[in-house]
Every structure is written in C-alpha cells, then in structure tokens.
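Moderator note: this is an archived Q&A kept for reference. The question asked for a predicted structure of one protein chain; the sequence and the answer are reproduced below.
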Amino acid sequence: MKQHIAVFDSLITINNILKGEKTVEVRFSLSKRPPFQVVGRADEIIMKYSHGDLIGRVIVENVLYYEHLTPEQIATLRKEYESDAMLAPDYWQSKARSKYVTIIFLCQPERYIIPVKYTKKDRRSWVTTEAKVTSS
C-alpha cells in the first residue's frame, strides 16, 4: 500500500468525496504522469486543498488506466463515469485531447478532525509520499 497526496482546486470536490457522494476521481493527462500507473488498489489518498491544508483521506477501492485515448473513447468514459465523478460537461470537453486517464474508485472517506498543515513547494497535483502523513 502506498500513500499519495492529491491536490484539488475545489473544496466542494473534497467535501463531496468526504460525504461519499463523489465515488470516482478522474485524472486525465497528455503524458504518462502520476497518478497514471502509480496509484493502486488499497492505496491511501490524502486530499489537499490547493490553497490550504490536508483535509482528509480516502482509500482506493479499484483503479483503471487507459492510454492512447481518442475523443470517442473519452466520450464513452464520460457516459460511464460522469455521474459518479461529479464532473461538469466543460471539464470533459477540456480533456478531449488527453492521451491518458486514471479512473480511481474511492471508498472509506475520512475527514480529519483538524486539518493538517503541509507545505508543498511545487506545482504537482499528485505526489506519492515517502513517509506517512498522519492526522495526529
């Protein structure tokens, strides 16, 4: 089991995950970069708000990877996962040229009682950590 820090631009998205309403996280890219082929079943994802602290954690129930995507495949993925991923139509349109996608099925969300301070000095939206980040 690995531990990852995923950066989210929206507190609404994090809250929807923590409430169990958003059960699928979709990460597109133009190249093979994390979380593509880095995150796996039973891994822990720590959720970080891009303008703040670590808010909570969630476990990876399952993960799917697709590469060499076509616009038609992205449209098919949209039909399959749009509801559970809670993504706006313009998000899918903005990713129409992506070549890779990681689809992460989420379970066991847990909000930290007190958000954890975490200083991140780069712009990566996904980091696999060397040491465990804990809420206590």
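Archived answer notes: The longest strand covers residues 100-116.
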